[in-house]
Design a protein that fits this description.
The chain is an alpha+beta fold. It folds into 2 domains: 135 residues, N-terminal domain of MutM-like DNA repair proteins; 115 residues, Orthogonal Bundle (Helicase, Ruva Protein, domain 3), CATH 1.10.8. Helix content is 27%, strand content 21%. The protein is built from 8 helices and 10 strands. The protein has a 4-stranded antiparallel β-sheet, with no helix packed on it. Strands 2-3-4-8 form a 4-stranded antiparallel β-sheet, with helices on both faces. Helix 1 packs across helix 8, helix 5 crosses helix 8 and helix 7 crosses helix 8. It starts with a helix and ends in a 7-residue tail after the last strand.
């Protein structure tokens, strides 16, 4: 289950409430070799020693990436974007399913497990700017939850783009950060837009509807504690059920009753209603 912007915001808010001011006493890494080999974890494990005896002073999220800022210009970067779990533990019942366990001086712990693609990195401020996920999410793109994400600016930006909507909203060249394939399918279903439509083809009303659909999706997923199969810092499961996606296989559109269709597009599978989302 991908961790997209709504879930990253939920985790970040919880971390801000419980982790700021805590001092790291020790850490434990396990089963990390595969991640290390493909660059998802520091090449030198001793880099994590730099986290020791430092307090967390801030927690922020942008896109799919969470930054825990520590004293003395150190950072713990967590990006579980294609499946991961982050839990806050106050007893000894940690379990064995984690890649990183950070323990604090008050005996509480934070565990991080990356199930698929993602990263766990201990970096100082100078190293951040050379890190792909930090650059992608913190230094580029527009965040849908920041003031710069206005209807006017969004509309003007996509009106001149001769790319399909998925390329505009998802991927390394997207104009927004934090939107992956799951959120994309729900957004364009809400906006009643065919996924292969180009930004330059949309009229003013369609661009407005697309903007509103992005906002409503993010707000609803945050309010419902994230998407189903997502667990927050305390193990509470999300209640948002996707309106479009693999869960709609062999079903009909709830709006018009048409059979949901699937196509391979933009490096993934897209589910859509051929009636509501006309070509």
């Amino acid at each position: 289950m991908s961790i997209e912007l709504p879930e990253a915001l939920i985790l970040t808010k919880q971390m801000q409430e419980i982790l700021i001011g805590k001092e790291i006493a020790f850490y434990h890494l396990q089963n990390f070799e595969r991640m290390q080999k493909i660059g998802f974890l520091n090449k030198n494990i001793v880099d994590f020693d730099r986290l020791l005896n430092k307090k967390i002073i801030d927690v922020r999220a942008r896109g799919n990436t969470i930054r825990l800022e520590l004293e003395n210009d150190m950072n713990l970067i967590i990006a579980p974007e294609y499946g991961g779990e982050i839990f806050y533990i106050t007893d000894d019942k940690t379990g064995s399913k984690y890649h990183l366990k950070v323990s604090f001086t008050d005996a509480s712990s934070l565990t991080v497990r990356i199930k698929s693609m993602g990263c766990i990195l201990a970096l100082d401020n100078h190293e951040l700017v050379n890190t792909y996920m930090y650059k992608r999410d913190f230094l580029n793109g527009i965040s849908p939850v920041e003031d710069e994400f206005s209807e006017e600016r969004f509309s003007q930006k996509i009106a001149v783009l001769k790319r399909n909507l998925k390329a505009i909203l998802v991927g390394k060249d997207a104009i927004l950060v934090g939107i992956s394939n799951s959120a994309f399918q729900d957004i364009i279903y809400r906006a009643k837009l065919f996924p292969k439509r180009k930004g330059s083809e949309l009229d003013l009303k369609e661009r407005k509807t697309l903007f509103e659909s992005i906002n409503s999706l993010i707000q609803e997923r945050v309010q419902l504690g994230g998407k189903i199969k997502f667990s927050d810092l305390y193990g509470n499961e999300g209640k948002y059920v996707p309106k479009m996606g693999p869960n709609k296989k062999d079903t009909s559109c709830s709006e018009c009753g048409t059979a949901i269709e699937k196509m391979s597009f933009g490096g993934g599978q897209i589910y859509f209603c051929p009636t509501c989302q006309e070509r």
